[in-house]
Amino acid sequence: MSRIGIFGAGSVGCAIGARLAATGADVVMIGRQRLADEIAAQGLGLTDYLGARFYVPASQARYTTSAQAASDADVVLVTVKSAATQSAAQELAAVLKPGALVISFQNGIGNAELLAAALPQHLVLAGMVPYNATSRGPGEFHQGTEGTLVVQRHARLAAIAADFARAGIPLQQRGDIAAVQWAKLLLNLNNPINALAGLPLKAQLSQRDYRRCLALVQDEALAVLDAAGIKPARLTPLPPHWMPRLLCVPDFIFKRIAGSMLKIDPLARSSMLDDLQLGRRTEIDWIHGAIVKLAERLSMAAPANARLIALIRDAEAGGKRDWSAAELLLRLTASSGPMTS
Q1: What domains sit in the chain, N to C, each tagged with a CATH number?
Q2: Residue 18 has what pLDDT?
Q3: What is the pLDDT of residues 89-108, one digit of tens each?
Q4: Alpha-carbon distance 171 to 125, whole Å?
């Protein structure tokens, strides 16, 4: 059995770790002192949108704040926020044993490359977590949406495939991982909209004007990707270029169509909303920022994406939150061109 380390185990890392540990895998999680204290007192629990529950008693849950705990890991899953990738790479470089496999399960583009540059003696694979995970209280986490873990195809994944399958999170291996990451980024463009709305995802997406905000930034992003020759993978029943049009349909039509496409429970919300409420730095620069930077390299503009970055930065500094759908749409369209109708 392979020993699995999860470095930067917050909501996503604990969601994966809880499933693995509860189903017999050898797992150690590494993260914040607050979570270490909670799990030491309460154990580690996970619920999901289907009603399943996983629980690891405190006596069996291995959660620590020390990177040294990854020194005997055969595989390390990196789940830190993008801003912490460089520091995570440096910490891991000091402790990883020769030959350890590293998988980046992070949002954004380029994190696996940053890790690989700092870990030249190790195999680093890119991965993607499609579902939402949030904290529900001391030692308790919740997976609020569906999805399958995706990892860059490699023969070495065979050593851990059984552990993940037994935990109910099988690894889907793909050769087009960059296309998968861009497709996930397109979906993550909703994160700041959800954070500024201050609502659960289902409630936010049920309002057409919030969806029109998302359609606007997706349209901009798709235009930039087209110009760059980047073709995002298809992660949903609809191709990426069709999504903005679906988002703009009336509420009753969207509810009927989207309900059959994506399972999401009423309490799920974006990690960016959690970050704002906890006073943490968000990943806006690694999501919308990636679109804006790519647009600039191509002498293009992505004004709605740039405006969302500014609004989130303002919210991080204590500025306005809880935007209504109409207010947010008006702000985003004030400096933007025509949107999908």
Answers
A1: 3-175 (3.40.50.720), 180-333 (1.10.1040.10)
A2: 98
A3: 999 999 999 999 999 999 99
A4: 13
